[in-house]
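A quick aside before the break. I want you to see a complete sequence-to-structure record at least once, exactly as it would be stored in a machine-readable document. Don't worry about memorizing anything.
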Amino acid sequence: MDILFWSGGKDAYLALQFYRQEHPEAKIRLLTTYDETDKIVPHQHIKLQDIKKQAASLGLRLISVPLPPNCPNDIYLERVKEALEDSEETIDHLIFGDWYLEDIREWREQVWGDMGYSCVFPIWKKSIHDLLPVLLFKPITVKISAVKEEFQSLIRVGETFDQAFVSQLQHMPDDIDPMGEKGEFHTIVVFKDLYELVR
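That is the input. The structure line, written in tokens, reads:
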């Protein structure tokens, strides 16, 4: 069994799609951490109830891990480790939707590797021209779910993330990563039954 760290956004969805292409028979479960006080996924600003609906739309089981507000790394790792160890099945790989940030990948490989887990990164260093078509031709819509304060005059929550949006970013004066990899913005993958939940 493989565990995909699921944020509810486009990167996790892309990781799922590319991993399934290479491993069509893999048994996958989703793992999401959320703030235990308001039941919202940090950074993404996605409600846990929406994450559960995404998992249902994908037909995948969800492991949800509550975290305290402003959770420090040691508590994060402890709680996720406990959730992984509670699994009744052997975990083969941990799957992440990282794209090109070397320090984050190295951190994941070190901390999870030290615990005995193998990490895989299905969209690592792939061209945006390979990634965007997957989002455009699947039965989903990707919406902006959160925007870093300094970019809120340029990007709005609720905007659709598509080819036009990416092209628009390229003409902006600020150096905004087209995938929001540096935290400029975050996204939610919207399935048909989630449309009414996205502002």
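Two observations worth writing down. Helices lie at 10-22, 48-58, 73-85, 102-114, 128-136, 163-170. Residues 10-22 form the longest helix (13 residues). We'll return to this after the break.
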